[in-house]
Amino acid sequence: xxxxxxxxxxxxxxxxxxxxxxxxxxxxxxxxxxxxxxxxxxxxxxxxxxxxxxxxxxxxxxxxxxxxxxxxxxxxxxxxxxxxxxxxxxxxxxxxxxxxxxxxxxxxxxxxxxxxx
Length: 117
Description:
This protein has four helices and six strands. It has 117 residues and is an alpha+beta fold. The longest helix has 20 residues, at 97-116. The radius of gyration is 14 Å and the shape is globular.
């Protein structure tokens, strides 16, 4: 991703401070958002348990489909999440379509990998 695209993305991400044991997402929540773990660590509790660390992303399925969350997400190491909701993403499409296309491509790629696992 080019520097301009990165800057445009950063302008649209909302930082969320999270504390240990804090609920990030509860199962059946309707939140069409993508999350990036800036620092800290979260655990996703669903059919399997997955830990996401610095730089990891989650919420690809919900972001793409708009479906309710089928998992619980809890912080197990304090840090910062970066949140991109779908409405903000559509604004990014208008202001920087190239950055939006790069994000969409990465999200779909991640979603495909999740489906393989």
